[in-house]
Amino acid sequence: MALPLTIWEFQKQHYDVHYQAWFIGGIFVILSMPISIYEIAMHTEYYTQPRLQKHVIRILLMVPIYAVDAWFALRRGGTAGYLDPIRECYEAFVIYSFFAYLMAFLQDTYGDLDEHMSKKPQMEHMWFLGWLLRPWDMGTRFLWECKKGVLNYVILRPICTALAFITDIFDKYGEGQINFKKSYVYLAAVTNFSQLWALYCLVMLYTAMHTELIPIRPLSKFLCIKAIVFVTFWQVGQGLGG
């Protein structure tokens, strides 16, 4: 109730739209920070499954990092150039942490995961990729391809972020511009392809081990991880549209 009233009051007083966005964003930061910090504190206090909980804590840290970055970018656009690289690199780390979380649970539960998966029926690639790629042999090969797919994003994201930062210094980045003389178009293409491949590999792992993963209810967690990537992608798309 307070938020709509605040917006209405801002409209009455003719405050700048940018200031309104910054103030409302601050409200959401104030709401999200205590919740995420409380969840992290509870995990550290009841640290009974360290192999799993360390990954959960790393994922939860994405909330304050993203919230603070977005709020500062609204308040002072110039700070985004320094804070965004931290957030972007941490996004990649979060996706890998989710993969590591799933693997830690499966290894703790089933022991030799390579042997366990080798007994499963052969899984084909999804969608049109079945026409382009040969199936990954179930077992060691399948798990390695999934891990490699996630790691590709963990490695490429910081590299692309560093290249964006360097080219921006020399006025060769052109953020949000479809300009083939600038680096933005190429770096965005590489980053987005890498993101999609990492998510595809997570989907493959989830599909192959769906039954085994039921105890930790990974679907909602997976959708949150996907949201991290696709909301960021949507923001990039808005920049291109502008």
UniProtKB/TrEMBL annotation:
Organism from which the protein derives: Volvox carteri f. nagariensis
GO annotations of cellular component type: membrane
Tagged with keyword Disulfide bond: no
Which InterPro entries does the protein's record reference? Ostalpha/TMEM184C
> Record keywords: Transmembrane included?
yes
What keywords would UniProt list here? Membrane, Transmembrane, Transmembrane helix
Q: What is this protein called?
A: Uncharacterized protein
Q: Where are the transmembrane segments?
A: 20-44, 56-74, 94-113, 150-170, 185-207, 219-237
Q: How does it sit in the membrane?
A: Multi-pass membrane protein
Q: What is the lineage of its organism?
A: Eukaryota, Viridiplantae, Chlorophyta, core chlorophytes, Chlorophyceae
Where does this polypeptide localize?
Membrane
Do you know which Pfam families this protein is assigned to?
Answer: Solute_trans_a (PF03619)
